[in-house]
Amino acid sequence: xxxxxxxxxxxxxxDPAVLDFTASLEVDRRLLxxxxxxxxxxxxxxxxxxxxxxxxxxGICAALASVEIEPDATDEDVHSAxxxxxxxxxxWVHAGRSxxxxxxxxxxxxxxxxxxxxxxxxxxxAVALLDAADRDGEALMPGYTHGQRAQPVWLxxxxxxxxxxxxxxxVRLAAVRAGADTSPAGxxxxxxxxxxxxxAWVAQELGFAAGFENSIDAVADRDYCAxxxxxxxxxxxxxxxxxxELVLWTSAEYGFAQLDDAAATGSSIMxxxxxxxxAELARGKAGTAVGRLAGLLATLKGLPxxxxxxxxxxxxxxxxxxxxxxxxxxxxxxxVAGIEFDTARMAAAAGDGTTVATDLAERLVQEGxxxxxxxxxxAGRVAAGERFDxxxxxxxxxxxxxxxxxxxxxxxxxxxxAGG
Length: 420
Ligand code: ARG
Prior knowledge:
The protein is mainly alpha-helical and 420 residues long. It has helices spanning 16-22, 25-28, 32-48, 54-64, 78-85, 90-93, 99-136, 155-180, 199-205, 215-220, 223-249, 277-300, 313-337, 343-350, 357-366, 371-383, 393-400, 403-419; strands at 140-145, 148-154, 182-183, 210-211, 257-258, 340-341. It has 18 helices and six strands. The chain is elongated and about 90 Å long. The protein starts with 15 loop residues before the first helix and ends with a helix. Bound molecules: arginine (ARG). Arginine binds at residues 24, 28, 77, 99-100, 103, 309, 311-312, 315.
């Protein structure tokens, strides 16, 4: 490695084991495009303020445009690599900034971008669910409570429920993005700078909604990271509930649906198997995602202000969380897009003669019976082994949610997802 940025004070050189342990380049090299953008804005600001010669500022911006970090680079982090790769111009760029505000600036830019990418993925899965609801939404299925058949519902009603959960994820991701949209550039190590820098100009150049209010908070705050990791964890929880149903519904025991071959895997020993691995892995990774949230909060807990190296751990949590969620969203979208429902089998389960018991009791209420008495009467008939054919499952579902209302709901879900 070329000597560390801070080697003036510590001339002895870092033990390789310590460098290995503390370096973050392998993780944070993905911040490169964001740090380059922020570094260029910083250099332009230095030039405008007369803090470095104009030609140095221009030279830095030109050089930043073509910076690429070698695959085998051994810099401590992406910020050190950029300064090294600027060569003779490197020594000019760091006036009025610290890696503490630099890393935050790049990370907040990355977070905004990540929220946009995730929202696209969430939207894609929600649309796939609503497309499936448009195709097969008028099929009947048993709705479940306690894992037991409860009442007949339209398949579209059920699929749209997953889409509404995803819509809330979109709202949350938009809030995370807004929370990340404050520029920390100019906060320096923690205390700002005695140089006449212009943080507001840099914030505007970088497209931030605002600049920081308090420089100490600006370098210490990782709320936006925790919020991102939480929003992803909750979205993952939603995916895991969908995934669980895909696993159940595609089992021979339910037989409600088949995955497309493109969304299933086989067994190395059992020739007949068609396994819902993407759904299982989404369910499994949801557990890891929940753990990452606990891990990040534990990292932040008890940290004194302002910057501490512990905070370097925020990146792995955020990056892994976002990577996993993006992958799960894409894979589940394939599962849902290609799913084939056995609507006859679902309808048969919905019409087993018991699931309409509540609707039958409600009919008796409409004829003037108190509900508790109606419940008791129908329960007695169920206990005696009676199976009901009136109302039918379709009549029962339609009495609660007429098909026209279902289609209205699907249309509203679609526009909420498109707009959110
Ligand atoms: N790699 C560090 C991080 O991710 C960048 C900031 C380092 N600052 C420092 N003073 N060591 O947090």
